[in-house]
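Q: Start with the shorter request: fold the first protein.
A: Done. Sequence, then structure:
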Amino acid sequence: MQQEWINWSGSIRFTPKSIETPENEEMLVDLVRQAVAFKRNLRVVGSSHSCSQVFKTDDILVSLEKFADIESYDATAGTATVNAGMKLHDISQALLKVGLAMENIGDVDYQAIAPAIGTGTHGAGKHLTNLSGQVIGLRMVTGTGEIVECSLEQNPELLRAARVSMGTLGIFTAVKLRLLPAYKLHRQEWCTHIDDCLANLDWLMEENRNFAFYWYPRRDEARIRIWNLPGQGSTDLSFARLDKEWSGWSGEVLPTPQELRYDESEYSLPVEVAPECFKKVRQRVKEKHRQMVGWRILYRPIARDDAYLSNAYERDIVAITLHQNAALPHWEYFTDIESIFQAYDGRPHWGKKHTLKAKDLRSLYPMWNRFQEIRQRLDPNGIFLTRYLRELLVGE
């Protein structure tokens, strides 16, 4: 019997012809080669947290839930190779046991690592890259069934193309991460009026290791979140009220439990124009959407990187994220604000909702054409392309 697949928010539903859970690379290679032989399509899925259609397929859906271990680690070098289906939370726990930690993770930690990397998922911190920036090597099964490895030393261009590729170059089976010795962070959450937050934005982003703020439209207030190594960063915000604070290992205090389900749209803007863009978004929400939208808007700085389709390719950015209760309509709100993001040269998050197609995206990514050349070489039969991904990457 065919099984319906539903994403975390409930807004993506589909029924693939089959759901496969290979136990090793050999079984995955066999799946890919069969898909080529019978001209079928194949998509890989992690924890289904994405609310875009990036993993949706009506053909073969591949879960890597059995690829969920630490393959190897080197505490002295500060590296580890982890299986592609391992959840971020589990990685944090496993690395802590051997004295290591990821440099940064996001507000949510139940995603599988490969899809999180492949969609450009990130945390918050002006001097910290998205998750893909922590990848120094990877192994994948290409669209011809070949197992390919690349790293900073071995075929670095392929690594730059593959890091943020949404599984269209191949299916990751393992990624090698650049890590830090296990470390603790002190987390503080401050409440203030949004105008005071914006007036102090530059030094808040510069002074604190991790920084983000939520804007609550109906109260016009901000909740500032900062994380720092013990004894570092801001300790007294004179314009704000400290609501709560606590300390712990990085993997325990960086994420936040998510009690309510929501859909998201997110664009990344050059850091220089992000405050002005946010002010336009704020104005539009107050004028047009505040009655329907009570959910917060998130503002996070991220450091530049060199992944071809990264939201931060060769520019420091700020990601502005719209949230809407999963039980309420979202498209009218998201598409209206999307026009503001686009006016500021925004790049969409691949795992969140947006309406852009290949003709809109091509000019946003300087290495777009080179990425497509590599994609076509590694998946010449297009077995990883669904209708959604063809519209996104090819323009068909």
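Q: Next, the second protein, separately.
A: Sequence, then structure:
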Amino acid sequence: MTLRLLVKSLLGPTSKIGVALASLAVGAAVVSALTSLYLDISIKMSEELRAFGANFMVAPLAGEAEAGAPPTVRGMATERLEAAIASVPADRLVGASPYLYGLVRLDLGNAVMVGVDFPGLRRLSPYWQVEGSWIGVAFDDRNAMIGRRLAESMALKVGDGVTLLNRAEGQQTRVTIKGIIDAGDQEDDQIFVALPLAQRLLGLAGRADFAMLSVVAQGPEADALAATMTREFPDVSARPIRKISQSDGQILGKIDGLMALVAATILVITTLCVNATLTAMVARRTPEIGLQKALGADNRAIVAQVLAETTLICLVGVVLGLVIGYGLAQVLGQAVFNAWVTFRPVVIPLTLGVSLVAALIAAVLPVRGAVRVAPARVLRGE
């Protein structure tokens, strides 16, 4: 009997059922899409923010002399830095490079030379504008890259040769300018060569001053990574670059808050739409409800019937909303992050729970109206 009444009520005027169904489907679609984005956004946004440069630094611990190293030798062994870099999970490490600084003489004056790992430097600094091309391998000792201002002051262009001289060590070599860098910072006044070449010219074989890393982590994750690295390598100081990591966290926090606000607003609108629809449905069925009560149906049965109808409409709406929401998440993922959003099973129960709560809240007033139907007044035709 109850099932027959339920089916009959749902087969009533399709426009009202359709409005409630559409409202719940839209609400579920927005919730599932934003939840999928929220669960993926930290990783996606961190990956996007990594295009703005390094956010992590590994350096020798200040005041601690490295075991076996002469006290006059600065920096630390590159093997040690590479071991510290290798401790970062591969799926978190975007790029890394050791740095070795020194002053050398070029043809027309002195300049700061920086020894780097070029493949790692390119992943650290994808925002650099390069005239010419990047150096593709870490061991290239015949080419160099030079900052724009330094190139202009030395009258150098791509393809020119330049001599690097370190009088203190009696070392010199000639390299070809392969790329001119526009970094918009101090790098525009420096010349970059492969780390092994810089070590030979400076007489610091196997040494580096520090290493810069680009890591997909922000806020507490970056701090935890630094603490773990420091425990594993007591002779190094590992620390996130606060200004960048905190900016990452602030941006992600604002985006999370914006998504939560949008989802809450959509849920409120959905609840109001469903409430209006259910109220109209209950009003239309007042004679039917009154007759049921006259035949012996108690308030509990009437409440159960209305809630069952609401739940069934909600379940159908959630199924439609999950399908639409998955497509919406992909559209937003491609539009904002240029990446597909990974489906996460936890989105299903979360969307269902939120939608059910919204639907049941919307049903409170209609249920109250159904309970207040007086059989005697209905039978009198009032």
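Q: Describe the second briefly.
A: The mean pLDDT is 82. The longest strand covers residues 93-106.
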